[in-house]
Amino acid sequence: MKKSLRSVLAIVVTAGMFAIAACSPSSPGDEKTPVSGGTLNIGVTADIVETIPSASAQQNTTAILANMYDTLVAAPKSGTEPEPALATEWTVSDDGLTYDFTVRDGVDFHDGTPLTAKDIVWSIEYAMKDPNQASSLANIAGLTADDDTHVTMKMSKPQPDILVALEDPNMSIIPADFGGRSIDEFRAAPIGSGPFSFTGRTVGTDIEFARFGKYWGDVPLVDTLHFKVFPDVNALSVALQSGDIDIVSNVSLDSVALMDGKVVTSAPQLVEMLQINSNTPALQDAKLRRALSMSIDRDQIVKSLLSGYGEPATTLLSVSSFPKGAPNIQDSPYIFDEAKAAALVAESGYTGTPLRLIYSTGIPSDVSLAAALQAEWKKAGITIELKPLESGEWLKAVTATPPHDNFDLSISRAGGASPTPQLGFVIDSQYFGGGWDVSTVKQTLGDYSDARDPATQQKVLANYEQNLSQTLEAVTIAYFGIVSVISDKVQGFEPRVSEFFPLNTVSLTS
């Protein structure tokens, strides 16, 4: 499931969150004068799977590609209101059904062709057809390019967070009709309008971008962005210490102490969760699903596996989704109770057949979490078979509808600041490849879209979470942010509330 972050629910395989801090949430550091030039090397544990922004359902891919593309509006540096990007300004009708955007004049794509309103309309319409993005944009009734610098967007019904959806890098703008090329030609040599241009890729090894000197915004300080793919966190640690890389993104939280550099973290807009396959007979019993949840010592997981960089979760939606904070859950299944869990296992009639737990080897911390869950569930009488998968294979398994037959349970992570794309992805994926009925989720999404005040929105989302706590089509585990480690020669990062951080303001000291 891709996506997350701020404006999109998505499975996170590895995210590129970078901020300057010292073993604490992001804050401006004691920075030196920026110096232009050089290559910024970033270490990741998963390669990109796509170069067309709307076609990706993998967070690592989205985070990397965000450096070469622009969106219509941008995630804010602070607060919640989207900021201008390719749109310099916009107005919204009183009924919330018409948006008029003024398009930034003088913007060029990397091949030198002008970016116009036509490209914006085509790109958003293309994204609307993609199953990964469809629900987030479903209320858009139509878009028109009034001239080269004006776009009108009509809504079929009001959607309070439609601008948040449009700031998602998956909604990035590309040349209309792929700039006259075939889709395969574009995938091989993509063109955007962002601060860096694509220069090459070796599949499974690296991807490289160059400074785009004609960028309309802050022209990058470094000459080159070089993302290097490593097999595991140990290799990343060695590369960071040797100076081969400058940034390690999405560090396994139980490995932070092994890294030699500044520890940096983002706001906790992600949710660690357990996906459940509805086709598994034993898991069709809600008692066994509740036993799985109550066997999880969330406090200990946050303390030991997340190194304190998070908090126990009680909702599937991220904390920032709720206008008035995460709701209180009655008769909560998220309270650790080994005795109750064991009793529920006995009541469920579970016979001991091993349940297959899959997880991505591209998410180092999930490898540790899988082992911890296996041990905790064993105490309750539940047998788990661990099945680590390469990130691409794992992604196929958990996004398949109907459900894939090679897993019973899966560790996943998702999130965002807005509930609409998160709920939309739950619908599109039938609870993350679980194959569950999503009629309640559809009703929730509709009711939320109709709600025009925070109190009503809060009530709608709280009712959804209360219902989910009893049906448990998915089990939430922890809220967390992305933790990265940077070398002390990295300077000039601008923190954002989004998980997609621009690297054009980053520089390297000697």
UniProtKB/TrEMBL annotation:
Organism ancestry: Bacteria, Bacillati, Actinomycetota, Actinomycetes, Micrococcales
Gene3D superfamilies: Dipeptide-binding Protein, Domain 1 (3.90.76.10), Dipeptide-binding Protein, Domain 3 (3.10.105.10), Periplasmic binding protein-like II (3.40.190.10)
InterPro entries: Peptide/Ni-bd, SBP_5, SBP_5_dom
Organism: Microbacterium protaetiae
CDD domains the record matches: PBP2_NikA_DppA_OppA_like
PANTHER family, alphabetized: ABC TRANSPORTER SUBSTRATE-BINDING PROTEIN, PERIPLASMIC BINDING COMPONENT OF ABC TRANSPORTER
Signal peptide (residue range): 1-21
BP GO terms, sorted: peptide transport
Pfam families: SBP_bac_5
The keyword Ligase belongs to this UniProt entry's keyword annotation: no
Keywords: Signal
Protein name (Swiss-Prot/TrEMBL): ABC transporter substrate-binding protein
Domain Solute-binding protein family: 81-422
GO molecular function: peptide transmembrane transporter activity
GO cellular component, one term: ATP-binding cassette (ABC) transporter complex
Organism domain of life: Bacteria
